[in-house]
């Protein structure tokens, strides 16, 4: 039996997953949440994309950590994500159409990249962006070593003195509570959120949607009734069907007649 999904190394960056064969394939770069690069969820999602004809790159941007510890998101240079994205676009197996998909902190990451690249006219913007459970404002730094569930004796709030992101060597415009200006991004946009999300309120996506409509934008938005921050199996089936449909229509050009 031959493999239907092949792993390919994106030189200098990491492993990708895609259909067997030489391609080229439409591609998606995946951004994990605070679970970190070692957790493997973005690799699982990459396999799902690969099974449906995409070349998927799960980009690990968290620092430190290991298979038992998530590491941290502190002073991460978003410029490096632009470099990774451009490397994926130039990969020999990629059909030049490249999307960006993030979950939770990865959704924040994706929206920030879209807004900052548009603001500063950085070449090579994503051809489409999808964000699940996103915030509507910049959040503080995350360090898994200090994380505890609310109610745990060791629980503490984020250290507001630490920053999650930098852009062009600066925290300017990236301080916690600063609105994410995703309305600057001109491409196709997909937003989704569980209505019963107990980690990041669905109201954040509702505010994003309202602001986008106020700027004449019409994103594709989905709210999942009864779903928490991590969706049920049934909820994930619905979400990934809609997500794949979005990237298919956004990245795969119809054949000319």
UniProtKB/TrEMBL annotation:
Domain Peptidase S9 prolyl oligopeptidase catalytic: 139-251
Biological process according to GO: acyl-CoA metabolic process; fatty acid metabolic process; proteolysis
SUPFAM superfamilies: alpha/beta-Hydrolases
InterPro entries: AB_hydrolase_fold, Peptidase_S9_cat
Gene Ontology molecular function: any one: fatty acyl-CoA hydrolase activity
Identification of the protein by name: Thioesterase
The organism of origin for this protein: Vreelandella nigrificans
């Amino acid at each position: 039996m031959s493999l239907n999904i092949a792993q390919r190394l994106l030189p200098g960056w990491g492993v990708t997953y895609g259909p067997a064969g030489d391609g080229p394939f439409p591609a998606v770069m995946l951004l994990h949440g605070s679970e970190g690069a070692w957790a493997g969820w973005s690799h699982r999602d990459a396999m799902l994309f690969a099974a449906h004809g995409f070349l998927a790159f799960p980009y690990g941007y968290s620092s430190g950590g290991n298979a038992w510890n998530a590491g941290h998101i502190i002073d991460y240079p978003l410029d490096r994500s632009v470099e990774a994205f451009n490397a994926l676009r130039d990969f020999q197996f990629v059909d030049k159409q490249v999307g960006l998909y993030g979950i939770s902190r990865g959704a924040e990451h994706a929206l920030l990249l879209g807004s900052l690249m548009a603001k500063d006219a950085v070449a090579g913007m994503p051809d489409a962006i999808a964000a699940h459970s996103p915030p509507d404002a910049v959040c503080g730094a995350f360090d898994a070593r200090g994380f505890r569930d609310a109610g745990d004796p060791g629980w503490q709030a984020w250290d507001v003195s630490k920053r999650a992101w930098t852009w062009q060597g600066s925290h300017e415009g990236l301080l916690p509570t600063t609105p994410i200006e995703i309305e600057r991004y001109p491409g196709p946009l997909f937003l989704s959120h569980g209505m019963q999300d107990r980690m990041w309120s669905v109201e954040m996506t509702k505010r994003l949607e309202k602001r986008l409509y106020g700027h004449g934008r019409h994103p594709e938005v989905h709210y999942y009734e009864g779903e928490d921050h991590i969706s049920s199996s049934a909820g994930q089936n619905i979400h990934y069907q809609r997500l794949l449909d979005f990237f298919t229509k956004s990245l795969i050009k119809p054949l000319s007649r």
